[in-house]
Amino acid sequence: MEFDKVIHEPARLRIMMILTGSAEADFNFLRTTLGLTRGNLSKHIEKLESAGYLNVHKSFNGKVPHTRYQMTHKGSQALLQYWERIDAVRQLGGS
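RESULT FIELD:
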């Protein structure tokens, strides 16, 4: 059974889980909550965005950049399918 390698990476799965529970999250919230460096979080966000799983919204608060993220419909569907595959593996283990 093949898992979505974009989502399966622990930090990216955690990002997706946070975004499942909220309409959007900003960069600093994700960085603080996940305990990732700026560079590490940026790389994970790039992977999720390039897969079409996240929308990125950039703006400025005065001169300070502000970046927000939202899960796309494609991302929601991919995460749902990921959990279905996890459940299928769990059921095989319980047989």
